[in-house]
Amino acid sequence: MHVRQNGRGDFKTLTEAINSVPVGNKERVIIKLGHGEYKEKVTIDRNKPFITLYGNPNAMPVLTFDGMAVEYGTVDSATLIVLSDYFMAINIIVKVAYVINPRFIIVTKKIILLQCRMEKGKEQALSMRISGNKAAFYNCKLYGYQDTICDDTGNHFFKDCYIEGTFDFIFGSGRSLYLSTQLNVVRDGLRVITAHAGKSTEEKSGYSFVHCKVTGTGTGIYLGRAWMSHPKVVYAYTDMSSVVNPSGWH
Question: To the nearest 10°, the Cα dihedral for 166, 168, 174, 177?
Fold first, then answer.
């Protein structure tokens, strides 16, 4: 099916297209999005598996919404929420629409942490939450600040993607492989890429970044921090350059 904002497709909005997918669907449904910006808050329920969002790589469609954690709660603030299994996204851009005050005061470690808490409520807004199993993302771009992606639960695969954020911008308890993906860290102050929420040694979850690239402004970027008691994050064959804090982990 085709989604076109000019009315020349089957639907004008992505929400309408997803609503048309039958509950309990067992066949792959490909939703082709035309070029443009779709300001929608989209949720794909658990009872609608096998959905693919497909965009033109030369004119990638943009999903955007200005939801914030103070209004919706952190995990429900996402522009795109995927609860179903076997989801795929190809050539799609997902953004947080709101603009934040880029103010951070750096004096001492204590002041940095205090400033993060003060700004935290203003910045928390997810680009995407992925909670279904066996999801895949190819050539997708995800933009946010704090908590860009809630890589929540399930097995997920990201290839040739671009992910941007500031603090904990990949977080959750997913079991995910990021391959040939660029992690771009913006702004200044305390900046951390991952906050994996492993809760025990037996839990089968963790993030693997393989043949990736860490880029950003300035220096002192941390690869990750311990959100829960047993985080598991691996970076392999990844270009980090001088932007990463030499200690690696917070």
Answer: 40
- Asked whether residue 206 is assigned to any structural domain, the reply reads no
Domain count, the chain: 1
* 145/121 Cα distance (integer angstroms): 12
pLDDT in tens, 144-167: 999 999 999 999 999 999 999 999
Which residues belong to the active site? Answer: 147, 168
- Tens of pLDDT, residue by residue over 16-28, are 999 999 999 999 9
CA angle 194, 199, 200 (to 5 degrees): 120
Distance, in Å, from the CA atom of 50 to the CA atom of 241, rounded to the nearest integer, reads 38
**Average pLDDT of the segment spanning 87-106:** 73
Rounded to the nearest 5°, which phi and psi values hold at 171?
Answer: -140, 160
Tell me if 128 is assigned to some domain: yes
Averaged pLDDT score across all residues of the chain: 90
Mean pLDDT over residues 189-195, rounded?
Answer: 95
Q: What CATH number does residue 137 fall under?
A: 2.160.20.10
In this prediction the pTM is 0.89
Over 50: is that where the pLDDT of 248 sits? yes
Can you give the residue range of the structural domain that contains 7? Answer: 2-187
